[in-house]
């Protein structure tokens, strides 16, 4: 029994090794070319393409409108002494009071 067990273990080990090596086997192709040799492919020469020049569009220019100061000599409704018409330094509302020293 010991002998048959050793043989069966050996056969089993051989089968395991054979089947585990089966996916690792490489396929060997042998090709024979008769006549004209195949085309030779060369790597193309490197091509340098110059980039486009960088163009930055200038920012728009804004001008402030001219300030309007009005007519310098227009004083139709402007009264300098609106509150003191007689120019005595006392406002008009106090001119007629009896204790005003500048009354007369």
UniProtKB/TrEMBL annotation:
Residues covered by region (Disordered): 76-104
Signal peptide bounds: 1-26
Domain of life: Bacteria
InterPro entries: PXPV (IPR024446)
Classification via Pfam families: PXPV
Bias type Basic and acidic residues, positions: 83-98
Keywords associated with the record: Signal
Annotated protein name in UniProt: PXPV repeat-containing protein
């Amino acid at each position: 029994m010991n002998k048959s067990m050793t043989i069966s273990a050996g056969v089993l080990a051989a089968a395991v090794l054979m089947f585990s090596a089966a996916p690792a086997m490489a396929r060997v192709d042998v090709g024979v070319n008769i006549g004209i040799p195949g085309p030779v492919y060369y790597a193309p020469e490197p091509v340098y393409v110059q980039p486009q020049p960088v163009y930055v569009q200038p920012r728009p220019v804004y001008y402030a409108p001219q300030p309007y100061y009005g007519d310098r000599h227009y004083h139709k409704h402007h009264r300098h002494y609106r509150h003191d018409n007689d120019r005595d330094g006392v406002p008009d509302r106090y001119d007629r009071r009896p204790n005003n020293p500048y009354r007369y």
